Write the structure tokens for this entry.
Amino acid sequence: MNDRPGRFDWNHVRAFLATAEEGSLSAAARVLGLTQPTLGRQVAALEDDLGLLLFERIGRSLQLTGAGRELLAHVRAMGEAANRVALAAAGQSQSIEGKVRITASEGMSAYVLPAALKRLREAAPRLEIDVVAADDIRDLMRREADIAIRHVRPEQPDLVARLVREAEAHFYAARSYLDARGRPQSLADLARHDFVGFGDNERMLDYLRPLGMPLSTANFRIGSENGIVAWELARQGFGIAPMWDELAARDPGMERILPELPPIVFPIWLATHRELHTSRRIRLVFDLLADYLGQAT
């Protein structure tokens, strides 16, 4: 046992925190980018430094001991403090070099961002851009991304959010599908058509039914949580799907159905961490994206 238990390595503490949150050494090692043996040695070293048993093995998983649970609350506070230090340091950076991570939905990442990133490359050719195709706003809180593009307003107090515009969507289908199945002339006609699902079909139905669409889960026989895959299924003639008008207009093979229907209006929000917003490179990317997304394409 270490005779100076008050002194320990932050890397060991971080290894303990990741293991406690992930539930296994292998999962924690992946999160931290370490090998499992290295992580295991770091956790063991912390136990030795503190003179405490922090985990016990139950089957294939690790569970916190009483001492481990008591320590975890303090370690989480340390981790949050470390993140705040990193955010403050990043926010003071005045360089327009380095990496900026942008997170957006799959469809936004694939179909909208590339044109904006071409403008960004012209403005700051030495920046490195990493696009994270995901919908989880926690990406920002965990520093897994610097800027997020979302369709709901982020509520976390540490985030700076800007509404850049409200966009419109309608329902579309491939011309080949409509030629084969007929073009619906009324909402009632939709009951005999196939729809492409974008993830949770029940949730989608909860939104569509108040619009007067007589649909059930039987209308959703194919779909994908991945927006790119779902839209491609619609393009290949599997059924009707909602899409942002500006994106659908780029594909001449897609036809709007029931064009008299009111549009589906959805917001486009940009968000970043309050500390990062003072960084010159983050501010540059944030403002360029706000300008690009705020304009009709």
User: Anything to note?
Assistant: The radius of gyration is 24 Å. Confidence is low (pLDDT under 50) at residues 1-5.
